[in-house]
UniProtKB/TrEMBL annotation:
Belongs to the TRAFAC class TrmE-Era-EngA-EngB-Septin-like GTPase superfamily. TrmE GTPase family. Its EC number is 3.6.-.-. Mg(2+) binds at residues 235, 256. PROSITE patterns: G_TRME. The keyword Chloroplast does not apply. Keywords: Cytoplasm, GTP-binding, Hydrolase, Magnesium, Metal-binding, Nucleotide-binding, Potassium, tRNA processing. Binds 1 potassium ion per subunit. Its cofactor is K(+). This is tRNA modification GTPase MnmE. Exhibits a very high intrinsic GTPase hydrolysis rate. Involved in the addition of a carboxymethylaminomethyl (cmnm) group at the wobble position (U34) of certain tRNAs, forming tRNA-cmnm(5)s(2)U34. SMART domains: AAA (SM00382). The gene is mnmE.
Length: 465
């Protein structure tokens, strides 16, 4: 799979901008650029030092295509580990294409998605989980997701796995060595030390596996189901939450109109608010489908918010009763799920009406989406619901499903080894299970790869990365 032909791609987004960066990597990156670049100071590109920048023109025959800044990185001290040229040109799509086409005619081919990072991996500049973190970093749209990707890219996650893998490998070799001396009945691998290592590995694997629950929601946004009848103020509340935060709003229409999602960043953490239909008793077929959907959404959510109209509840005992029934239904069905009951429109209530409501619903959270009363505190409450402790302590968090699956398999094998040790299983069988565990740990860092796996991972990158 190792390939060092010359590849080129636009590294900045396509479209117009002040500046665009075009990246070239490969064994001839510098020599093929030489004739296409005229330095204003008459420098010869071939003799320039690594990590230097040069002002000049990209020329075709005698025609000047653009005035550019050209950066030279010599392998192995470059992103890909090969010779790399980065051209910062003027950001018109026309100029970008002219330059890229010129290079394509002169010894380059168009890079595939993720090919620069694939080369970085193949040339040992980073391991596989770090390379995957590059894609996550580019995709991260909030502080928490960014922080996790950054930590993984710096190797936090792989270092931990790699240390364990090395220790395990050590034991595997010793146990396999014993097999060569089977007739002499010797023990090179200290069994009590090995048991300690196994326990430690299980502890670390379990912690990483558990962290996936946090990591996955942080990467994709923490799902919060908002249950509420029409007109209780769901849209107004979402807008109020949106207002002061830098947010990305996307209306992802679900299969039916009763599942709309809004993404909002609160305190650096991404939340996905899933708007649902209410769960009132009904004989209407269409409505009961909606209710089924609501329950499905509640099941998937990390937190449930039951939004009720406080003003209606205070003035109509029937409304109060239905809200209490709704609340009980959710509690009965999902007793473990964090649930927040919010009475909206409290700006329309008198203090004694509020007291009256609290008698029936002691944990009621009071809010006015319209006036903004209670909105700030609600944000803090939502953040409290989320287990971001791991984040704050900058512990390793697993966000990648591929890693998660490999960790599960590794743990399964380690548990098998542990069982084998307890049962005095012969060393040759033990060795097989250890090798399996090593295999799955190696899958994460890229010690064990195949072309298909690499193809899948890097196909998800953008071109130019
Ligand atoms: P949704 O159908 O649940 O999304 O409800 P909307 O957000 O569209 O709100 C329904 C109506 O209630 C609108 O006329 C809002 O202006 C009003 N409303 C929403 N929140 C409040 C509030 O806190 N106080 C008052 N007085 N009216 C509100």
């Amino acid at each position: 799979m190792i390939n060092n032909d010359n590849i080129i791609a636009l590294a900045t987004p396509s479209g117009a901008g002040a500046i665009a960066v075009i990246r070239v990597s490969g064994k001839d990156a510098i020599s093929l650029t030489g004739p296409l670049f005229k330095s204003v100071r008459g420098k010869d590109l071939k003799v320039q030092k690594s990590h230097t920048i040069h002002l000049g023109h990209i020329v075709e025959d005698s025609k000047v295509l653009d005035e550019v800044l050209l950066s030279v990185f010599k392998g192995p001290n470059s992103y890909t580990g090969e010779d790399v040229i980065e051209i910062s040109c003027h950001g018109s799509p026309y100029i970008q294409q002219q330059i890229i086409q010129l290079f394509l005619r002169n010894g380059c081919r168009a890079a595939q998605a993720g090919e620069f990072t694939l080369r970085a991996f193949l040339n040992g500049k980073m391991d596989l989980s770090q390379a995957e973190a590059v894609a996550d970093l580019i995709a991260s749209d909030n502080e928490a997701a960014h922080q996790i990707a950054m930590q993984q890219m710096r190797g936090g996650f792989s270092n931990e796995i790699e240390k364990l893998r090395e220790q395990l490998l050590n034991f595997a070799s010793l146990i396999e060595l014993e097999l060569d001396f089977a007739e002499e009945d010797v023990e090179f691998a200290d069994r009590s030390q090995f048991k300690i290592l196994l326990a430690k590995i299980q502890e670390v694997l379990k912690r990483l596996i558990d962290s996936f629950a946090v990591g996955n929601v942080i990467k994709n946004g923490i799902p919060i189901a908002i249950v509420g009848e029409p007109n209780v103020g769901k849209s107004t509340l979402l807008n109020a939450l949106l207002n002061e935060e830098r947010a990305i709003v996307s209306d992802i229409a679900g299969t039916t109109r009763d599942t709309i999602e809004d993404e909002i960043t609160i305190g650096g953490v991404g939340f996905r608010f899933i708007d649902t239909a209410g769960i009132r008793d009904t004989v209407d077929v269409v409505e009961s489908i909606g209710i089924k959907k609501t329950f499905e959404k509640i099941a998937q959510a990390q937190v449930v918010v039951l939004l009720v109209d406080g003003w209606e509840m205070a003035s109509d005992p029937d409304k109060l009763k239905t809200s209490i029934i709704e609340l009980e239904k959710i509690k009965n069905r999902y007793p473990q799920k964090p649930l927040l009951v919010i009475a909206n429109k409290v700006d329309r209530l008198q203090p004694e009406e509020i007291e009256g409501l609290k008698l029936h619903l002691p944990d009621l959270y009071l809010l006015s989406a319209k006036s903004g009363l209670g909105v700030e505190e609600l944000k803090s409450r939502l953040l409290e619901f989320v287990n971001t402790g791991a984040l704050r302590n900058s512990e390793t968090i697993v966000t990648n499903t591929r890693h998660y699956n490999a960790l599960l398999k590794a743990l399964e094998e380690i548990e098998r080894v542990q069982f084998g040790m307890d049962e005095d299983t012969p060393s040759d069988l033990l060795a097989i299970d250890i090798r399996e565990a090593l295999y799955h740990l190696g899958e994460i860092t890229g010690h064990v790869t195949n072309d298909e796996l690499l193809g899948n991972i890097f196909a998800n990158f953008c071109i130019g990365k």
